[in-house]
Design brief:
CATH class: Alpha Beta
Number of domains: 1
Helix content: 40-55%
Strand content: 5-15%
Distance between the termini: 25 Å
CATH architecture: 3-Layer(aba) Sandwich
Largest sheet: 5 strands, parallel
Order of helices and strands: EHEHEHEHEHHHH
Number of strands: 5
CATH topology: Rossmann fold
């Protein structure tokens, strides 16, 4: 079943082991606020449609999007910066220009790097989270309260659930040796329904 446009939120973030605690915070915040997180991973890693087309389709089908730009510095031996996230933010911005009813959140671990790395984003507010999944969760829930499709909830009720969500999604990632999007969302939804 395809989630309704009004509560769909496209997630644009690093998908690696180091980011898993932050991804879990994003998923918990979104699910607890009644939003439906979307990712190209929901179609499985070996889908015949090219990844960029899946991203475009999901962005068009989502009223909201979240973009984490914390990986703007070079990494690894070759010192490559991750360019997928800024590229996808540009795609979302293009959709917003044709439909200003869409909304997006731009996340970063610090407010200082973004104006230097992407100076064209000047004037766009970002939510810094100081490399802290708990702060990220609080800030996301606070921003979701302004989105018409989201449920307003006290983030203090969610913070105790974060370790349980991380453990459950860690078990899913280990069992399937990948990010099984559907199973991860089911785990988060089960925890939210059981504990809230």
């Amino acid at each position: 079943m395809v989630p309704p446009y009004e509560v769909s939120v496209f997630i644009n973030c690093p998908f690696d082991d180091d980011f898993n605690p932050f991804l879990d915070a994003i998923l918990l915040a979104a699910v607890a606020c009644g939003l439906d997180p979307r990712s190209p991973d929901e179609l499985g890693p070996w889908h015949p449609k090219p990844r960029l087309e899946r991203i475009q389709d999901l962005m068009k089908a989502s009223k909201y999007s979240i973009h984490d730009l914390s990986r703007l510095r070079g990494e690894g031996d070759d010192n490559f910066a991750r360019m997928n996230m800024p590229f996808e933010l540009g795609m979302a911005r293009g959709l917003w220009l044709s439909d200003p009813a869409r909304d997006m959140i731009v996340l970063t671990d610090t407010t200082y790097d973004l104006p230097v790395a992407l100076s064209d984003l000047g004037g766009l507010d970002v939510l810094p989270y100081g490399s802290d999944p708990s702060l990220m969760l609080r800030r996301l829930v606070g921003q979701f309260a302004f989105w018409p499709g989201a449920t307003d909830i006290d983030p203090n009720r969610l913070l105790p659930l974060l370790p349980e969500v991380h453990a459950a999604n860690g078990a899913v990632r280990e069992e399937y040796e990948m990010r099984h999007w559907k199973k991860m969302l089911l785990a988060v939804d089960g925890i939210v329904k059981r504990r809230l």
